[in-house]
Amino acid sequence: MSFPQISSSSQTSGNVTDAIAGGTLTTIIRGLSGSSLDLAERGKTIFLPGDPAERVYLLRCGAVRLSRVYESGEEITVALLRENSLFGVLSLLTGHRSDRFYHAVAFTRVEMISAPATSIRQAIEADASVGLMMMQGLSCRVLQTETMIETLTHRDMSSRLVSFLLVLCRDFGVPAEQGITIDLRLSHQSIAEAIGSTRVTVTRLLGDLRSEGMLRIDRKEITIFDPVALSRRFS
Amino acid sequence: MSFPQISSSSQTSGNVTDAIAGGTLTTIIRGLSGSSLDLAERGKTIFLPGDPAERVYLLRCGAVRLSRVYESGEEITVALLRENSLFGVLSLLTGHRSDRFYHAVAFTRVEMISAPATSIRQAIEADASVGLMMMQGLSCRVLQTETMIETLTHRDMSSRLVSFLLVLCRDFGVPAEQGITIDLRLSHQSIAEAIGSTRVTVTRLLGDLRSEGMLRIDRKEITIFDPVALSRRFS
DNA sequence: AACTCCTGTCCGGCTGGTTGCTGATTTTTG
DNA sequence: CAAAAATCAGCAACCAGCCGGACAGGAGTT
User: Which of B27-31, B65-69, B133-137, B155-159 has the lowest mean pLDDT?
Assistant: First the structure.
């Protein structure tokens, strides 16, 4: 069993899911009627389940967590979105209005732009290149989400955690003195909610990885010394 | 812990992820230069990892399985695509050509249309409504994939299996005399590969569900008597 | 009829979930 | 700014659930 493509290139320039031309989309969306530039502090809710799904968002910087909350109070993470991700995609579907079913929260300080789905449609009609950009942005989302599915089908938690860490490196990694630092403040609980495990297990496994010398954790910031080595951790 | 929205509506008319206007997209894509109508028998490979990613596919009828094969020979399912799904999405990304990393196989007899990504781009430039359609199609994919992530984060296999069966009802369910039949021929192995478990466990859990009177299996075709009841199976 | 693929079942062993507690760290508040 | 509160990390004990491997009988194919 192997892991998401962490080739040497993905550490530096980025891989295929970086392809969205976020910059261009930004200026396009900014020009739409009803668009707005939104800022949110860590922990602030962007939309709630049950809210009408009207706007589409483009994350400019920071991270957004999409999650589902169950009656039991349990919460699972459906996606951890990074820069240049499109979200609020539900609103793009057919005219008949529907409601959000996910909870979107700013996972870090966040800067994003949003516009009503109707404006997006009009903009596409007016300028075909908008459609092209949207198409690429959504393709990226599909590919990223599929990587996460790969992560989640690993049977042992150790592989799952490692695979997830590599995804985080891809999406939120910044080069550090030694290795790559994941530019997020991740509690063990939040990791558990993303990989479908429990806090206790994540604590144990991260401890193992640390004592193996694969990573360092400083104030909730994880630094992976050698992603390639990490991806080879298992046969 | 609850389950994907299987409201009474989703049994009959279909839910939000049905929204893609597949019919319209079909005629559009058919008209593109380089497009083709492809038929494939069950089990036939559509593309392989390493193939150049050039074409985009729209599944007209049948089911396609996207999977990743590991060196160990192990195989996991990344997506089970249904009618009107767009796939081969990797080819839509930026110009620099890249290779497939998934294996696409016809899971049933399949009818699909495909066109080079370049033609799609040109078509969008020429007619903005193509961009609109593509956008909707891709949004659907995102939402469907996210549902699958929800399924995979359930911690106990029983919940995971149930959740997956409900997804299959949504995507491949046809009304039967009593309940809904999943219009696929699913081996226990293939289910295991989709939910990240093993054949033996799937056999056992399906057996449990059967003896509880939740479903019937006849020649690999699963009939769920009452999806709503099934979704309530756990507190 | 021979073959392949699939289902069903058994059992030993271990992973990982659960619960409960403690001390550390961070955030809030007076 | 310090005290109080909340959140978080680490540890231990228990045990259910799942995996792994193995095998036998069915179902479907050629």
Answer: B27-31
User: Which residues numbered 128-187 in A keep a CB inside 8 Å of some CB on B?
Assistant: 128-132, 134-136, 138-143, 145-146, 148-150, 152-155
Q: Do B196 and A78 touch (CB under 8 A)?
A: no
List, in sequence order, the alpha helices (H) in A15-156: 22-30, 117-126, 128-153
The amino acid at residue A71 is E
Determine phi and psi for B54, rounding to 5 degrees. -120, -35
Global pTM reads: 0.90
Residue B115, both tokens:
């066109």
For position B23, what pLDDT does the model report? 67
Query: Residue A137: is its pLDDT beyond 60?
Result: yes
Encoding tokens for residue B137?
Answer: 């199609």
Tokens 């309530």 -> residue:
B232
Taking CA atoms, A156 is separated from A3, A150, A151, A159, B198, in Å, by 13, 13, 11, 6, 12
Nearest to B63 by CA among B48, B81, B78, B46: B81
> What average pLDDT does range B122-147 have in this prediction?
91
A28 CA to centre of own chain? 22
